[in-house]
C-alpha cells in the first residue's frame, strides 16, 4: 500500500544513528545517509529510533513476553486435530498463566503454538511454556510435527508516556498502541501511522506546527487510544482471579470488549 502510494521501500538497512541538526534529522544506516524534517518511528516495541533519541523505555508491567513455535504439519492433519479453520485459546490464572493466555492457530502447513504473559509474573518462562505444551490436547495436536521456528517476542500493553516530541512520532508497537486484553496491534499500527501523516499535513497547512503533538494525541484519543487506555486499567480487574476471567470470557462471546468496559458489564 505504501509503495503503491509513492513511497520508496528500503530493506535490509540497519539504523546506525539519528540526530537532530538545526531543523532536520540526519539519519545514517548501514547503506546510506538521509535527511528528514519528520521522523515516524514504526520499528516496534524495542524501537531503535526512539532508543537512540533517548526516549523513555516502557515500564516492565506494560510488557508481555510471548513465546511462539511454528510446528509443520499438512493441512489435512491440522483440520483433523484442530477442526477446520478453528483457533483454540487457553486461559487459567491459577494453573496456567497469571496474566495472559495461550493459543493454537492453524495455518496452511503449520500450527502456531503460542503463550503470552506479563513480564515479571513468572520467573521461568520456558518452563511454563513447556507446561502448556504438555497439556494433553496441545500435546496431541502437535504430535509428530516438525519445529520450523521458535521465537520469543515482546508486546507492549501500555501506551508510552510520550508519543510525539520535536517532529518525531511514535506509531504502532513503538508507541504501545496494542489492545492490552487481546494483544491485537495491526489495526492500531495502521491507524496511528495514518493519523501521524494527517497531523503533519494539517499542521503545516494551518500553520500550527508548534501544536503538532497536541493535535496528534487528540486525534489518536478520538480514534482509538482513549479506549485502549481504559482497557489497560480494566485488564487488572479481568485477571483478578479465574472467576472474574470466566465472567469476562462469557460476556466476550456476545459483546465487544470495548462495550463490556464502557458499559461496565463485568
Please outline the helices and strands.
Blueprint: E1 15-21, E2 24-29, E3 33-36, E4 39-41, H1 48-52, E5 63-72, H2 75-82, E6 88-90, E7 100-106, E8 110-118, H3 125-133, H4 136-141, E9 146-156, E10 164-165, E11 168-170, H5 186-206, H6 212-238, H7 242-252, H8 257-262
Parallel strand pairs: 4-11
Antiparallel strand pairs: 1-2, 2-3, 5-8, 5-9, 6-7, 7-8, 10-11
Helix pairs in contact: 5-6
Question: What does it look like?
Answer:
- By secondary structure, the chain is α+β, with helices and mostly antiparallel strands.
- The chain has helices at 48-52, 75-82, 125-133, 136-141, 186-206, 212-238, 242-252, 257-262; strands at 15-21, 24-29, 33-36, 39-41, 63-72, 88-90, 100-106, 110-118, 146-156, 164-165, 168-170.
- The chain has two domains: 3-56 and 159-235, FAD/NAD(P)-binding domain (3-Layer(bba) Sandwich); 60-156, D-Amino Acid Oxidase, subunit A, domain 2 (D-Amino Acid Oxidase, Chain A, domain 2).
- A hairpin with a 2-residue loop joins strand 1 (15-21) and strand 2.
- Helix 5 packs antiparallel against helix 6 (212-238).
